[in-house]
Write a structure and sequence with these properties.
The protein has about 200 residues and is mainly α. Helix content is about 55%, strand content about 0%. It folds into two domains: about 120 residues, DNA polymerase, domain 1; about 55 residues, no CATH class. A two-stranded antiparallel sheet has the order 1-2. Helix 1 runs antiparallel to helix 2. The longest helix is centred in the middle third of the chain and has 19 residues. The chain is elongated and about 70 Å long.
């Protein structure tokens, strides 16, 4: 059984270029789209995109519903399911406008990748995330040891996170020039800091 179709690979390459240069997506977003399209190909046993039929979209949703999270072994979460469908749908919308696919693929066919409205709402529902109160954070800060250089570093980092509210990736990429001690502020320059 083939693990790829040469023509499909060329099309996916063109789509990645479209996402990067026309749609302005970064590499992480492009990789997610590639993974979603790969899942679709797995569900069709790597049939060429030119042989698309709307039944494949319906079968893909059923196939995706049976897939397990590779880390937890549990069924895919609603948001993962919904995001995968949206990414594959975006690819086929792009594909429907390409020469050679207009006879095979219509915008109505692409609509078969839609999730149910209820599942879509559930996938995008905001959950309340518990976080420590300022009092709890202050208590944790006071309880931190302060004997060694490592303890002092850890306590300083904790204080920095609490005072700035910056994400860990942003703090890790900060440079000294981004911290102005005299004015008491931190400038997260997106050109240099991973904000």
């Amino acid at each position: 059984m083939a693990k790829f179709v040469e023509e499909n690979e060329r099309i996916k390459f063109d789509y990645a270029a479209y996402l990067r240069h026309v749609d302005g997506k970064d590499e992480t977003s492009i990789d997610k789209a590639r993974a979603a399209i790969r899942r679709f190909e797995e569900s069709t046993k790597f049939k060429p995109f030119k042989k698309f039929h709307r039944q494949q979209a319906m079968d893909f949703k059923d196939w995706l519903a049976k897939q397990k999270n590779t880390t937890t072994g549990k069924p895919l979460g609603l948001s993962t399911f919904d995001a995968t469908l949206r990414l594959v749908k975006g690819f086929f919308q792009w594909l429907a406008g390409r020469q050679g696919f207009r006879r095979v693929l219509s915008s109505q066919d692409v609509g078969y990748f839609n999730n149910t409205r209820k599942a879509g709402r559930l996938a995008h529902t905001q959950r309340e995330i518990p976080y420590p109160s300022a009092l709890q954070a202050a208590h944790a800060f006071q309880a931190m040891p302060f004997e060694t250089a490592f303890h002092k570093r850890d306590k300083a980092l904790f204080a920095f996170f609490m005072l700035t509210g910056a994400r860990d990736g942003a703090v890790a990429s900060l440079k000294l020039k981004h911290v102005n001690v005299d004015l008491g502020h931190v400038f997260q320059d997106a050109r240099e800091v991973k904000t």
